[in-house]
Structure formats: structure tokens, C-alpha cells
Amino acid sequence: MAKVDNPRAVAGDNSGTEQAATKFAKDALKALVERIERLEDEKSSIAQDIKDVYAEAKGNGYDVKVLRKLIAMRKRDQNELTEEMTILETYAHALGMGVFG
């Protein structure tokens, strides 16, 4: 009887047997992680740029807190913002606050 070699895989030794699907999944995962890392770097850079613009605005005498509120307001739906401002004005008037003229 001839002896049959039956080598068993050793943990971590899959260099010749890695399936294409597994390699593709690993490559896809790596690509996604690298894209996220690049975007995080860009986000950090943009955040720093925004901080610099606010510092410039403050240096030019603008109230940064008010600028932030204006920017948040501009992002909102115009109808919702108008409704909220009308209610705010009504409440302020009812409390005797003359902030809206």
C-alpha cells in the first residue's frame, strides 16, 4: 500500500489556498477603511479651516455666536424657520420683551 500524503493546514498558512472571494472581501474592506480615513483627514482639515474663518470674522468685529446661529438658520427649511420666528416673536411680545421692535 502506498502512503498518501495528507498535509493539514497550519493556522495562518493560507498563502496558496486563499479563495478569490475572501481576497476580494479583504481588499474591499481595506479600500473602505482607507477611504474613511482619507475623509476623516479631510474633515479635520475642513474643520480647522472653518475655525480659522470664525477667528477671522471675530478679528473683524463680528459676533461669532450670532454668525453660527445665522448659518444654522440658513440650513433650515424657510417655512419652518418663519413659523418658529413668528412664534418666538409672539412669545417675546407676550412677555413684554421688546427684542423684535
Automatic annotation (TrEMBL):
Residues 1-20 are annotated as: Disordered. Pfam families: GapR_DNA-bd (PF10073). InterPro entries: GapR-like (IPR018753), GapR-like_DNA-bd (IPR046367). Residues 22-56 form a coiled coil. Residues 25-96 form the GapR-like DNA-binding domain. Keywords: Coiled coil. It comes from the Bacteria. GO terms for molecular function: DNA binding. Belongs to the UPF0335 family. This is UPF0335 protein SAMN05444123_11288. It comes from Rhodopseudomonas pseudopalustris. The lineage of its organism: Bacteria, Pseudomonadati, Pseudomonadota, Alphaproteobacteria, Hyphomicrobiales.
